[in-house]
């Protein structure tokens, strides 16, 4: 009898999950190219963390083409770990997941038409996809909340530049924005400055490595860039020197282990597949504002910028041949928005410079800027359970003054001060 009960419970539980899935996961038809809607349709999927409740505000979790945490089956957990049950939480599973579009931009031999790829995967298409989902969920004039980090945060600000009037609140963390870096003359890649200051011998050894030509410049950049995600900030200088010594010694066993540990082999394999096409388009959009003043130098290493450069080379070549015309992000529309915007920056962020985050915040009339004594992934805030609380508190706050008071009191120890 006990076994029978367990059997029926398991079957019914599976049926319940299957039944809920049709309410949680949805797909809509959208133009392949919003500028030329007659060129055909593709699909965009979205998923709720819980059954939709029209009485609750709706938060869109935004990820761009080079982020993978927003995917089918993941939104319930994201609702639990980032938000709570006070909201409808929805994740948009972007067009970068669509096989029809990847087939559209490649020929039968697997060669990529990067001009067409840029058209299909440009940020304008993603922004319009988000807006189509918004209209589907809350109606043509309905309002939403937005959450995103890093490239997803950048996409949120791009969305706000076109459709900000439909957003009541937006929370972005470490939102990359190299348009501001270029405009302000900021170099976000502080690797060389930090490393040579910590070790006066690093520069000489790096030049020796370049002269040896035993390992490609692209791989050198990728190794040092990926290291940021696997090493704690207070250990970086030691680990950077350790890696440089291994490269100088051409210790292939150790180098191959680093490639595995830093997930470089997996990334490279991914980039050479059709799944890598939309990622490389997005990385090109990152570096595009910086191209005017960028050049590889034998006496200096900029791992973050160089990794972007090598990853998006096919698109840079297409751009240099005038085959693609990227659209720069504009900021003028945001000056008049009523949207309440929370900008979370990390002082020790190797990707999104805190100085350009200050400039980004100043664009919005109703903003809160919090510069955490933290890195790109906000590991300190997350390890102490403060990251989720910060998001929820902002979305629940009645006014910006209350939120400002909260961070000045409860988050004082996490704030960076000069």
Summary, kept brief:
The protein is α/β, with parallel strands linked by helices and 418 residues long.
Topology:
Layout: H1 2-24, E1 25-31, E2 41-48, E3 58-61, H2 75-82, E4 88-93, H3 99-104, H4 114-121, H5 123-138, E5 144-149, H6 151-163, E6 167-173, H7 178-184, H8 191-198, H9 202-212, H10 217-227, H11 236-248, H12 252-261, H13 264-271, H14 276-287, H15 303-311, H16 313-320, E7 340-346, H17 354-362, E8 366-372, H18 379-383, H19 386-396, H20 400-410
Parallel strand pairs: 3-4, 3-5, 5-6, 6-7, 7-8
Antiparallel strand pairs: 1-2, 2-4
Helix pairs in contact: 4-14, 5-6, 9-11, 10-11, 10-15, 14-15
Using the coordinates above, name the CATH class of the largest domain.
Answer: Alpha Beta
H/E topology pattern = HEEEHEHHHEHEHHHHHHHHHHEHEHHH
Overall geometric form: globular
Overall domain count: 2
Determine Rg (CA atoms, Å). 23 Å
What percentage of the residues does DSSP assign to strands (E)? 5-15%
What's the oligomerization state? single chain
Distance between the termini: 68 Å
Quote the average pLDDT.
93
Q: At CATH's second level, what is the architecture of the largest domain? A: 3-Layer(aba) Sandwich
Give helix % range.
Answer: 40-55%
Q: Strands across the major sheet, in which order?
A: 1-2-4-3-5-6-7-8
CATH fold-level label of the largest domain: Rossmann fold
CATH superfamily caption of the largest domain: Alpha/Beta hydrolase fold, catalytic domain
| Unreliably modeled segments | 1-19
């Amino acid at each position: 009898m006990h076994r029978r009960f367990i059997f029926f419970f398991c079957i019914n539980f599976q049926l319940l999950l299957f039944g809920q899935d049709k309410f949680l996961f949805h797909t809509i038809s959208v133009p392949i190219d919003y500028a030329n809607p007659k060129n055909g349709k593709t699909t965009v999927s979205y998923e709720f963390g819980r059954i939709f409740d029209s009485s609750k505000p709706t938060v869109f979790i935004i990820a761009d083409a080079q982020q993978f945490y927003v995917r089918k089956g993941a939104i319930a957990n994201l609702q639990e770990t980032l938000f709570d049950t006070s909201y409808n939480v929805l994740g948009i599973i972007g067009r970068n997941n669509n096989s029809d579009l990847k087939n559209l931009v490649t020929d039968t031999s697997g060669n990529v038409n990067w001009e067409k790829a840029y058209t299909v995967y440009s940020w304008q298409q993603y922004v319009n996809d988000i807006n189509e989902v918004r209209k589907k969920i809350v109606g043509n004039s309905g309002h939403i909340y937005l959450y995103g980090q890093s490239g997803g945060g950048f996409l949120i600000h791009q969305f706000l530049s076109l459709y900000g009037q439909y957003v009541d609140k937006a929370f972005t963390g470490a939102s990359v924005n190299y348009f501001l870096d270029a405009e302000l003359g900021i170099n976000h890649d502080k690797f060389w400055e930090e490393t040579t200051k910590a070790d006066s011998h690093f520069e000489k050894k790096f030049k020796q490595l370049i002269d040896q030509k035993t390992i490609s410049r692209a791989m050198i950049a990728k190794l040092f860039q990926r290291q940021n995600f696997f090493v704690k900030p207070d250990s970086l200088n030691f680990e950077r020197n350790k890696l440089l010594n291994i490269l100088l010694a051409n210790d292939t066993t150790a180098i191959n282990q680093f490639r595995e540990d830093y997930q470089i082999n997996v990334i490279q394999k991914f980039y050479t597949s059709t799944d890598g096409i939309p990622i490389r388009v997005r990385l090109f959009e990152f570096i595009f504002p910086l191209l005017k003043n960028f050049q590889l130098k034998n006496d200096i290493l900029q791992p973050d910028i160089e990794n972007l450069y090598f990853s998006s080379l096919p698109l840079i070549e297409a751009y240099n041949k005038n085959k693609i015309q990227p659209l720069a992000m504009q900021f003028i529309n945001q000056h008049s928005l009523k949207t309440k915007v929370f900008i979370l920056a990390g002082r020790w962020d190797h990707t999104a410079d805190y100085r350009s985050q200050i400039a980004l915040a100043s664009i919005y009339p109703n903003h809160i800027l919090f510069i955490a004594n933290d890195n790109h992934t906000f590991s300190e805030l997350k390890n102490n359970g403060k990251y989720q609380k910060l998001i929820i508190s902002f979305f629940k706050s009645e006014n910006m003054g209350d939120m400002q008071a909260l961070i000045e009191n409860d988050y004082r120890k996490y704030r960076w001060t000069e």
